[in-house]
């Protein structure tokens, strides 16, 4: 970041920074001169994709340290912060903490009602063509973002025998929600935060809208927002600001794991005033802006970054 705005000894700590919002934020903040620490959890086979991204960050002349470890294990958190503290040295401080961990359970809470739509079969009959052949063509085009076919594409498939259990819910709420607090508390206890630190988490429209299979993640997002508000109030006197970014529907690896993600993308493009999805870079840009000294009075908020998607009644 520009020397007049932020100190060269300041760092961003990104939990879940090897793809999606986390990686985009690592790129943006490093472009602006901030040093970056990325904690991620990826298999060895994924590193051929990830390492070039990390190399691009290093090429900007900033410091980058990465740890391929489980950020959700308390003992690992201690080890990681020991290592980060050594990297920061006596002068280094964490200005930005971004919680971008995507580890949630995507099960239904109960069996689905049988699908009743006959639109595709009736269309095939009217056109005198094979319904199976029509269905295959429709699904292929719909997956290629031909959104107008949403009404006759094959509905999302959910597991019909395994449903959300108490342990699934608890693990998801911890991973994607309350784990933010433990990292924030530990960073503060070690004196690693800067005098004007910013804490960020990521939520979605699922915090108020029920999407099938999203119950556990939705609960985690609401917990994350609540934790952030508490940080904003109870840690403000330490110079810590905490905010949550509510991104519009974004084509990330996490979104693609949600059954029916093609439908979510199609609906978002239909609603969005700009007719496109939110991108990770859109979100990273706002995180950067909120990390600047001029944004110091933004605290305890949920900030929508979606191009107006949430207020739009459009349905192209």
Layout of secondary structure:
Elements: E1 10-15, H1 20-31, E2 35-40, H2 47-58, E3 64-68, H3 74-88, E4 93-99, H4 119-127, H5 131-143, H6 166-189, E5 193-203, H7 215-234, E6 240-247, H8 253-256, H9 261-271, H10 280-291, E7 302-305
Keywords:
about 325 residues, alpha/beta, Rossmann fold, 2 domains, seven-stranded parallel β-sheet, 10 helices, about 40% helix
Verbal overview:
This protein is α/β, with parallel strands linked by helices and 316 residues long. It has two domains: 10-104 and 167-311, 3-Layer(aba) Sandwich (Rossmann fold); 119-152, no CATH class. The protein contains ten helices and seven strands. The protein has helices at residues 20-31, 47-58, 74-88, 119-127, 131-143, 166-189, 215-234, 253-256, 261-271, 280-291, and strands at 10-15, 35-40, 64-68, 93-99, 193-203, 240-247, 302-305. The protein has a seven-stranded parallel sheet with strand order 3-2-1-4-5-6-7, sandwiched between helices. Helix 6 (166-189) packs parallel to helix 7 (215-234). It is elongated, with a radius of gyration of 21 Å. It starts with 9 loop residues before the first strand and ends in an 11-residue tail after the last strand.
């Amino acid at each position: 970041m520009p020397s007049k705005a932020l100190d060269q000894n300041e760092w961003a700590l990104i939990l879940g920074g090897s793809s999606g919002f986390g990686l985009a934020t690592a790129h943006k903040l490093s472009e602006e001169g901030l040093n970056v620490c990325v904690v991620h959890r990826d298999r060895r086979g994924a590193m051929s994709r990830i390492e070039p991204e990390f190399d691009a960050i290093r090429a900007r002349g900033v410091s980058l340290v990465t740890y391929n470890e489980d950020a959700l294990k308390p003992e690992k958190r201690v080890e990681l912060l020991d290592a980060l503290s050594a990297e920061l040295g006596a002068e280094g401080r964490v200005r930005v903490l971004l919680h971008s961990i995507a580890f949630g359970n995507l099960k239904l809470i109960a069996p689905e009602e049988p699908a009743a739509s006959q639109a595709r079969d009736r269309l095939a009959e009217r056109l005198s063509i094979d319904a199976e052949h029509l269905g295959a063509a429709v699904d292929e085009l719909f997956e290629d973002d031909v959104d107008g076919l949403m009404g006759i594409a094959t509905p999302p498939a959910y597991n019909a025998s395994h449903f959300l259990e108490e342990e699934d819910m608890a693990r998801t709420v911890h991973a994607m929600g309350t784990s933010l607090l433990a990292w924030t508390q530990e960073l503060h206890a070690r004196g690693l935060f800067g005098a004007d630190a910013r804490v960020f988490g990521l939520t979605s429209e699922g915090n108020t809208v029920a999407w099938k299979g999203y119950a556990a993640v939705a609960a985690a997002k609401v917990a994350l927002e609540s934790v952030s508000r508490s940080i904003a109030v109870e840690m403000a006197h330490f110079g810590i600001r905490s905010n949550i970014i509510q991104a519009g529907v974004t084509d990330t690896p996490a979104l693609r794991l949600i059954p029916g993600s093609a439908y979510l993308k199609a609906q978002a493009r239909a609603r969005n005033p700009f007719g496109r999805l939110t991108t990770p870079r859109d979100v990273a840009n706002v995180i950067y802006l909120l990390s600047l000294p001029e944004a110091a009075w933004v605290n305890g908020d949920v900030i929508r970054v979606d191009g107006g998607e949430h207020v739009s009644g459009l349905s192209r």
